[in-house]
Amino acid sequence: MSHSRTKSRLFTRLEVSGIKLENSIYMYIFNKTRLKLTAWYLLIIMLISISFSVVIYKGLESEVERFARIHRMRIERQVLLMPPPLSPADLDLIKESKQRIILILAVINGVIFVISGALGYVLAGKTLKPIQEMVDEQNRFISDASHELRTPLTSLKTAMEVNLRDKNLTLLNAKKLISESVNEVDKLQLFSEELLQLSQYQTPNGTIPFEVISVTEAIKKAVHKMLPVAKQKQIEIKEKVGEYEIKGSAFGITDVFVILLDNAIKYSPRESTITVETRKTGNSVFISVTDEGMGIEAKDLPHIFDRFYRADYARSRTGTGGYGLGLSIAKKIVDAHHGSIHVESKRNTGSVFTVSLPLISFS
Question: Which residue windows are transmembrane per the record (predicted)?
Answer without folding.
Answer: 37-57, 101-124
